[in-house]
Design a protein that fits this description.
The protein is of the alpha+beta class. Helix content is 26%, strand content 24%. The chain is globular, with a radius of gyration of 22 Å. The chain starts with 29 loop residues before the first helix and ends in a 17-residue tail after the last strand.
């Protein structure tokens, strides 16, 4: 076994950008930043399929609202607005959902109902979204879609990482049109290979190829993808870090465990299905190394003109603890709810507040080094996790009744679960025998393979030391899935929406 690489500390950045000479309302501390957003008057809206990604941010930011396609809380969350359903083409992406919302006349009125100069933030958007925003007279507080699209390209990520001194798993970048060409291009990488296309989510465009038969199963996707990334297959665990590029440096969050391919939660091999925010799951050296790599990537993003929120996926080799760059997501992600509700966020501020601060036009001072030092300590993490439940059924059925969003309780003696109280946030969980379920698929929707059922939030980890779902986790999955009542009387119809979450 090779010795682990020496841990590198997250660089301290104490330089403060010059302020305007006549600046009067400069935010000079984290307390000032918290107060500024708590008293915020400018209307800010998160537009997305649900409010999952920025769940609870309205507790930190005044005049913050959610505009969603799905009502997870049956009208009980006053911060959520769901317009009436209108006919639309089949959604092929989250961008399609968001553009549908931005075109809705009820949404247009809602965006201007809370004050002047409204702002929208989105999980995903494209140039069409930007045109709709201009037409509606609202600002998007994110870098341009074209820049985000370029950085979201997995092929560009490899090159960006190389430029920042952040290595990917040994790989080649090439166009692959046949198995013979794959073998020639990847001859130095061995026989067990992983092929990734430039874009894709939750493992849908990651292919494991060890034989010509494996290649044949995925040949259509690989041949039509242009340049792809071909990696040596390694034994690894997945982890991730979120960060925020500011004018004062890159703020770096904690190392978070990725739940990937958990068979009880997703039918997709390699599919993302949740995260654990657990202190030192991988050890201090790996944690510090991944956070230092994230800081370097953030500083490289700043050189390219990017600012604000981003997330990095890492692959941690189980044999030698090497940390490799996996993917770069220039946006908020499925990790964001955990990042923004952990102990360090309550001690300072949620990471997304720093993103909004960067776009607000307000002058502020910030010692990024001090924040990174605090957030890098184990005591700043207070064990949260979530599990995204996708249907593993191979048939399609309409849902007759669905479990409600809220706090559910497990009987430790029997493993049975029951709704304890309706709720719209997970923050009030009291013990390991409670979990917060955020329902996605409800009565009248359809269950099919890969459909998002909902998200389970809990205190403590979902995985055991072998990175398998714990017995407690299996009881929770069985209980929630079992709470769905299906109807078999209706004929199969064409589904109108995809699973709504990407990592």
């Amino acid at each position: 076994m090779k010795p682990a690489q020496r841990a590198a500390a997250v660089p301290r950045r104490t330089n403060v950008a010059p302020l305007r000479a006549n600046a009067r309302n400069v935010l000079r501390s984290v307390a000032d930043i918290r107060r500024y957003f708590y008293r915020n008057q400018r209307p800010i809206f998160f537009v997305g399929p649900t409010n999952f990604n920025l769940l609870g941010l309205e507790r930190w930011c005044g005049n913050f609202h959610h505009v969603n396609y799905i009502d997870c809380f049956d009208g009980a969350d006053p911060s959520v607005f769901v317009p009436s359903k209108r006919p639309h083409a089949k959604f092929a992406s989250i961008e399609d959902v968001n553009n549908h919302l931005m075109e809705h006349p009820e949404v247009a009125g809602y965006l201007h109902a809370f004050g002047e100069k409204p702002v929208v933030v989105l999980l995903m958007f494209d140039e069409a979204t930007e045109r709709l925003a201009r037409h509606l007279g609202v600002d998007i507080w994110f870098p341009p879609a074209a820049l985000r699209q370029s950085l979201d390209n997995k092929i560009n990520t490899v090159r960006l990482g190389n430029a920042a001194g952040v290595a990917s798993v040994p790989n080649v970048l090439a166009r692959i049109d046949s198995y013979a060409e794959l073998r020639r291009s990847a001859r130095r990488l061995g026989h067990d290979l992983v092929v990734q296309t430039a874009f894709g989510d939750s493992g849908h465009t990651t292919f494991f190829v060890s034989s010509e038969a494996d290649f044949a199963r995925h040949a259509k996707e690989i041949r039509g993808a242009g340049e792809v990334k071909v990696m040596r297959r390694i034994d690894c665990h997945s982890a991730a870090v979120e960060g925020c590029v500011t004018r004062h440096g890159t703020i770096v969050g904690p190392l978070v465990t990725e739940l990937v391919g958990v068979r009880e939660a997703t039918p997709f091999r390699g599919g993302w299905c949740g995260n654990e925010l657990v202190a030192d799951r991988f050890g201090v050296a790996v944690r510090d190394r991944a956070r230092a790599m994230t800081a370097r990537l953030g500083d490289k993003l700043a050189q390219l003109g990017y600012r604000g929120y981003f997330e990095v996926d890492y692959l941690i080799d189980t044999h030698d603890a090497n940390v490799y760059l996996g993917e770069l997501n220039p946006r908020i992600t499925g990790i964001s709810p955990l990042t923004n509700m952990a102990a360090f966020a309550h001690a300072d501020a949620p990471l997304f507040l720093f993103h909004m601060l960067e776009f607000s036009g307000v002058d502020y001072e910030l010692d990024v080094g001090e924040i990174n030092d605090r957030w890098g300590k184990a005591e700043s993490v207070d064990d949260w996790s979530h599990l995204v439940l996708k249907s593993t059924a191979t048939t399609s059925h309409p849902i007759a009744h669905a479990p409600a969003s809220g706090v559910w309780r497990r009987d430790p003696a029997t493993g049975r679960i029951a709704l304890q109280r309706h709720a719209t946030l997970p923050h009030g969980l009291q013990s390991a025998d409670e979990a917060f379920f955020m329902r996605i698929s409800g009565s009248g929707d359809w269950i099919y393979e890969g459909a998002d059922l909902g998200i389970l939030f809990a205190r403590g980890p979902w995985l055991d030391d072998a990175f398998a779902l714990t017995a407690r986790g299996r009881q929770w999955v069985d209980g929630i899935v079992g709470a769905y009542g299906l109807s078999t009387a209706m004929p199969l119809h064409s589904r109108a929406q995809l699973g709504m979450y990407v990592k």
